Amino acid sequence: MRIGITGVPGTGKTTVAKLVAENYKLELIDLNKVVHDKGLWTTIDPVDNAKIANLVALSRELQALPENCVVEGHLLCEIKIPLDRIIVLRVPLKVLEERLSRRGYPDEKVRANLYSEMLDYCTERSLRRYKGTGTLIHEVLASKTPEEVLVDIGKIIEDPDGLLFRAPWVDIAGTDNGAPGKA
Fold it and tell me: Which residue range forms the structural domain that includes residue 165?
């Protein structure tokens, strides 16, 4: 099983992905680490000193994923790699703002990430990127404890066609029948 976990910064991707990997005995692949370790970046953003990833090279690097892994990172919705499921972690805007502010993010970066969350950026990009691949796409509300989020993800892993998991304020892929979004 190949699971992707994505979402805007501050949604808990790293913490939750570690729990999923440990609980289900999956290899953990951190996209930021792959970009750094393999030198898959083109330049450094002068505003926040972040590496700008070469998405084509990153996608190419990840085409031969292990059979049982969890891939984690906000860039996941920007590339297409062989995944069975993508889980988009979502957080209410107030909670996200508090988390990013605690991290010391500048106001401009906090606002940019709030806008991305408000516009369902990671969900919409994932749906578009994985359309026609058969990859199931779910949203999970991640304002709970990481252990509670793990329980929701466990339900998805064990029965992906069961309950609809999505943030309560959006209607993923226009579904209203309880089925998860399927790209």
Answer: 2-182
